[in-house]
Amino acid sequence: MKKWGLLLLVTLLGACKPTPQQHIRLLGGDWDLARATTAVAKVELERAGYAVTVELVSPGQIWSQLARNEADASLVTWLPEGSRGHAERFFDKLHDLGPNGPVLTLGLVVPANAGIDRIAELAGSGYGHNRVVGMMPGHGIMAMTEQALARYRLDEYELLSGSGEAYRHLVQTVIDEQLPVVIAAWAPESRMMSERLKWLADPEGHFPATERPHTLIRRGLERDAPKAVEILAGLHWSAQDIAFLLAEAGPEHDFALAANKWLRRDTGGAE
């Protein structure tokens, strides 16, 4: 009788044990660097047996959704400056697994044929109709560009925001037609590798020089899916790694294809 009671207790305890989470919700961003690293994370998690969904959202939504446990992880948030406002609100409600990529180059770019070479030379020039083209509101480059414009006293310049698709289209048009446009930019990023663009020198260092993308996860994921957290924490890319992913995505920007090529390269061809 004692034996059957023990077996029943073990069975009941086993039934009460939480089922490991098998579905991971990743939050990505609509820019090439974010799409590339998120695609690799998706492939790596799927290889470990997880079902993975990816949603492209604004940077602010990444922080708020993770803080509310509405998603599991993101690899695309910039710190320490690009997400300072969001971090002040939400940092203590999630976990930061640390930087996953190289230090970003941040600044302003113009067509290669532009007659200016330094950010300070924009003052009084009217170049680009006193406008700087930026990304979506809340994107890391926006706040840092606003700060840089203020520090260079370029008060006549207006920073414009738009969707990721609109930004990519405009940058490609500037490359193709060498239009007089000032672009808030970061690298590594596919189009910023073009020799038909040039970075304006920032000798005052008003753009941050320590910005990196970080991996954030919701609180409790380490309990619900510890293997997934281990995988996410182990994902790191050098500048050369990112260049490989962006190049392999090709003109079609097929980041799923690039991620699978990355996996084959990372595993020596064996999957």
TrEMBL record:
Residue intervals of the ABC-type glycine betaine transport system substrate-binding domain: 24-264
GO molecular function, one term: transmembrane transporter activity
GO cellular component terms listed in the entry, alphabetical order: ATP-binding cassette (ABC) transporter complex
InterPro entries reported for this sequence: ABC_Gly_betaine_transp_sub-bd
Superkingdom of the organism of origin: Bacteria
Name the record gives this protein: Response regulator receiver protein
Organism expressing this protein natively: Zobellella endophytica
